[in-house]
Write a structure and sequence with these properties.
The complex is a heterodimer of chains A (593) and B (286).
Chain A (H helix, E strand, L loop, with lengths): L4 H17 L4 H17 L2 H16 L3 H16 L6 H8 L8 H14 L2 H13 L5 H17 L2 H18 L4 H12 L9 H9 L8 H29 L9 H26 L5 H19 L5 H34 L2 H12 L3 H18 L2 H18 L4 H15 L7 H9 L4 H24 L1 H12 L28 H10 L15 H12 L11 H9 L19 H13 L4
Helix pairs in contact in A: 1-2, 1-3, 3-4, 4-15, 5-15, 6-14, 6-15, 7-8, 7-13, 8-9, 8-10, 8-12, 8-13, 9-10, 9-20, 10-20, 10-21, 11-18, 12-19, 12-21, 12-22, 13-14, 15-18, 16-18, 17-18, 17-19, 18-19, 19-21, 20-21
Chain B lengths: L1 H42 L5 H9 L5 H39 L6 H25 L7 H22 L15 H39 L14 H4 L1 H23 L13 H13 L3
Helix pairs in contact in B: 1-5, 2-3, 3-4, 5-8, 6-8
The chains are: A mainly alpha (593), B mainly alpha (286).
């Protein structure tokens, strides 16, 4: 047993905290002390310190970024030969991830539309279009959520924007209260599955090291499953409308025309975003910028609903949301770096291989795991911590990375509805002034529908990947993909006198990455090398720009046509550490001639 | 004690005002740069996206058809489509305004005039942009990402003040008030230490980059413009430092005066704000 000082101090610290927290509840204290002692006995120094940080953070109610950063920095100090500033260099690496630009833009666009009049116009249109069918009002609520989801990218915001109008309307139309709240709480969760989706962008960033997924393709992949769940909820609404004998609204062409005219510009936003992404006109980042400009132009100039005060509020609110996300992503990257450095994903893949799980077995395992994770973890935390480990495992058993991404998102969408950390449950409970128990009971039937939908989506990959491959002009059937070798490639042994990839990486990291000053001993820093290269190519001459993932995908879609020789030069792009790692790994994996 | 709190509150208000200004500047610059970059890239293509889309719908077009589509059909379709779109938007804007002021419905002729005027203005702007930046908007993405980091980190700092960070408070919520306040103080001290460490590490990194820039000749600057890179790094010690003091202040405040209403349940989403927004949406006239 390891009795290092740090381990003993951590044990005593957490034990004191647990003692303070549970001094009046002896059983609770015994449980905490039991867990702590078991961990002390059965884990090593680092393992115990990791658990101690988790338990301590839970007891003290610390922010998530402190938990992630704390573990990351502790592991960097104890397990790697890197110096601590590598943690802040990871934060700075965010300024090299172009896809990350999409998040603030989608947040701003959603905020603009929420503070504007989009929700009301959207609902007016949906009521005019679907109000006449059995359960029509409930169907229009679901359709409103589906459409709003295609704008906001956030589930709680969808619940608030649509639910606050539709739940009172449904109750007034004599739908049972529990049905109305349950339906809107569930339909609101579609916000993260139907593009644009902020969790999808974060997912693609987090798995980029092992199984790169283009966020634009994830967006496309989310459409059919999202519409499928929407359709299932709509059918459920129809049956309930018939069951409760709810009177229908008469159909009126005049009303539909008026609602279309009023809501036309709001309805066009998802058409522009999704149409642009579908047809390959926009990448995810471009679509996000377009959505902000469009939403701003519509709300300010066309609807005339946005004044300076509201605009300031939009800017501050959206950046607060973005800020709380960014700091978590940044510190999760530090943790992710340690996991990769310690080859944790590789170990997990190997363990999985030892279990000899089939593809179906793996999917069952993943779904159960993610449903449990979704119950206890916030969606962002789950993506940041679990996705980098699960993605290579899925690739190893032949699950398509895009399909895996959708399974992940649908599972965590269900996590929005499951206690104790179901965010939509809390939002609904606060919004509709009902107890959390009432809301939990209210979502049970729709939760069942979601689980059925999850099973279908999981075992029919073509639902997620069909559209993606159709757009790529590649045939794709439901047959399992060929299991790929472990995505973190094994390196060929270096020739005598040659340095291994890991040694080179270590050296590179010891020099402090791209931004660090030159190491003593006269070794040149990246900046100096770049400067020299620049001097070699002539002062002011710009280095050729490396192509972004989207551009490469675009080129591949266009049949790999070479760009015209006189095509405009793109701006310079310096390679990030991760890109260099990726390239180096790819080179190392290539067979020697 | 009360006077100290008031002083700290006033100081925090000043910091918030500065943060708001910086945040607005960063967000605006980020949006402008990316938008200009997207416009520049879109309109400087050899083959327009409209033409690519039309060609994609055809099966095996001949070289003559390709030329016709790329040189004539695509550009004209875009011109007519965009003009129609803007004229419709102009007419809608005038109609909505007339409805609000209960004025008579506007005539379509004037809407066409306004729409054409806006279209010509936009076309002139795009032409001007392509004239100024024929090959690319230099460093747009890089600078935008720098502004994103600044605005995001400032947002994180504002989120600290407004208690909108995602917190692991399942256990803490169940504590009695006195113990909860003590744990808030302990938590505040821990996060103060953590953010302080990150601010220090950020300062070390900033110092290295600054020295590199100061002593090197043209080193440590962006490729597109000679703006030093350490300006981006500066956001780390500044914002983590501010966050450290805000977390400490929140801990002390909770310990002495108890948590503010709605603060304990903060879970990444400001419930009160959401409820307020919901009420506003519901109140808007149908």
């Amino acid at each position: 047993m390891d009795f290092s000082l740090s381990k003993i101090v951590a044990y005593l610290g957490v034990a004191v905290l647990a003692g303070l927290a549970y001094r009046q509840r002896k059983v609770g204290l015994l449980v905490w002390l039991g867990i702590l002692t078991a961990l002390f006995v059965f884990t090593g120094k680092v393992g115990f310190l990791v658990f101690a940080i988790i338990l301590g953070s839970l007891l003290l109610g610390l922010p998530l970024f402190v938990l992630m950063g704390g573990i990351g920095i502790m592991c960097i100090g104890l397990l790697t030969s890197d110096d601590l500033p590598v943690a802040v260099r990871k934060v700075l690496e965010l300024a090299g991830k172009e896809v990350l630009l999409a998040i603030p833009f989608f947040v701003v666009a959603g905020e603009l539309m929420t503070q504007g009049t989009l929700a009301r116009r959207l609902i007016d249109f949906m009521r005019a279009a679907f109000g006449w069918i059995p359960g029509g009002l409930a169907v229009s609520a679901v359709a409103g959520c589906v459409f709003f989801a295609a704008i906001s990218g956030s589930s709680p915001v969808t619940v608030v924007a649509i639910g606050s109008i539709m739940v009172p309307a449904l109750v007034k139309a004599k739908y049972p209260k529990d049905f109305s709240i349950g339906l809107l709480t569930t339909a609101g969760s579609l916000g993260i599955l139907i593009p644009p989706s902020i969790p999808m962008i974060i997912y693609s960033i987090m798995v980029s090291g092992s199984t790169p997924v283009d966020p634009t393709e994830l967006f496309v992949a989310g459409i059919v499953p999202g519409l499928f769940i929407g359709l299932m909820l709509a059918l459920y609404s129809v049956t309930q409308g018939v069951r409760f004998k709810i009177p229908r609204e008469p159909f009126s062409m005049d009303r539909l025309w008026h609602a279309t005219r009023e809501g036309f510009w709001s309805l066009m936003l998802p058409v522009i975003i999704l149409g642009g992404i579908y047809t390959g006109i926009f990448t995810a980042t471009e679509a996000s910028a377009v959505s902000v400009v469009y939403a701003l132009a519509v709300e300010v100039f066309v609807h005339g609903e946005m004044d300076r005060k509201k605009l300031l509020s939009v800017a501050e609110n959206s950046m607060t949301v973005m800020g709380s996300l960014l700091v978590i992503i940044a510190l999760a990257l530090t943790l992710n770096y340690v996991l990769v450095d310690q080859e944790v994903p590789e170990m997990m893949v190997n363990r999985l291989k030892e279990m000899n799980l089939s593809r179906t077995g793996f999917l069952v395992f993943v779904n159960i795991l993610l449903l449990i994770v979704g119950m206890f973890m916030d969606i962002m935390s789950a993506i940041l911590i679990i996705a980098p480990m699960l993605a290579p495992m899925a690739a190893a058993v032949g699950v398509d990375p895009i399909h895996m991404g959708i399974i992940f998102i649908v599972n965590l969408e269900i996590g929005y509805l499951t206690p104790p950390v179901g965010l939509n449950l809390f939002v609904s409970s606060t919004l509709f002034k009902e107890s959390i128990g009432f809301v939990i009971r209210a979502v049970v039937p729709t939760l069942g529908i979601m689980l059925v939908a999850l099973a279908i989506i999981s075992y029919m990959p073509s639902m997620s990947t069909g559209l993606v491959y159709a757009l790529r002009n590649e045939p794709k059937v439901d047959a399992p993909a060929t299991p790929t070798p472990t995505p973190t490639p094994t390196e060929p042994a270096p020739a005598p006198g040659e340095k291994s990839l890991q040694e080179l990486m270590k050296e590179r990291q010891q020099q402090g990455g791209s931004d660090a000053p030159p190491a003593e001993g006269g070794e040149k820093s990246l900046q100096e090398l770049m400067k020299k290269a620049k001097e070699g190519t002539g002062e002011g001459a710009e280095a050729p720009r490396e192509k972004s993932l989207q551009e490469l995908m675009q080129e591949r879609k266009q049949g790999g046509e070479a760009a015209p020789a006189d095509a405009p030069a793109a701006p310079v792009k310096e390679k990030s550490m991760q890109e260099l790692m990726q390239e180096a790994k790819q080179k190392a994996a290539e067979p020697a001639p | 004690m009360e006077s100290l709190r008031k002083f700290v509150d006033k100081l925090d208000d000043v910091v918030l005002t500065i943060e708001r200004v910086l945040l607005l500047v960063s967000l605006s610059m980020m949006t402008v740069l990316v938008t200009l970059d997207v416009i520049q890239r879109t309109f400087s293509r050899q083959v327009s996206k409209t033409s690519t889309l039309i060609l994609g719908l055809m099966s095996n077009p001949s070289p003559e058809t390709k030329a016709l589509v790329t040189e004539t059909v695509g550009p004209w379709l875009f011109i007519v489509g965009s003009l129609l779109f803007i004229v419709m938007a102009a007419h809608s804007a005038r109609s909505f305004k007339a409805e609000k002021t209960k004025a008579p419905a506007p005539g379509f002729g004037l809407s066409v005039g306004v729409g054409v005027g806006v279209w010509v203005g936009l076309a002139a702007f795009i032409k001007g942009l392509l004239w100024v930046f024929p090959s690319s908007v230099p460093g747009a993405q890089k600078f935008a990402l720098g502004f994103m980091l600044w605005s995001g980190m400032l947002g994180a700092s504002v989120a600290t003040r407004e208690r909108r960070h995602i917190v692991l408070d399942t256990v803490k919520k169940k504590l009695d008030e006195k113990m909860g306040n003590l744990f808030s103080l302990l938590g505040g001290l821990v996060v103060f230490g953590f953010c302080g460490l990150l601010a220090y590490l950020g300062f070390v990194q900033l110092h290295d980059e600054f020295v590199l820039w100061r002593d090197g000749d043209g080193v440590g600057v962006f490729d597109a413009l000679p703006i030093p890179r350490w300006i981006v790094t500066l956001c780390l010690p500044v914002t983590f430092g501010t966050m450290a003091f805000r977390f400490l202040g929140a801990g002390v405040r909770d310990f002495v005066w108890g948590p503010p209403k709605g603060g304990v349940d903060a879970h990444g989403v400001d419930m009160e704000q959401l409820a307020k927004e919901a009420e506003q949406v519901g109140k808007e006239p149908a």
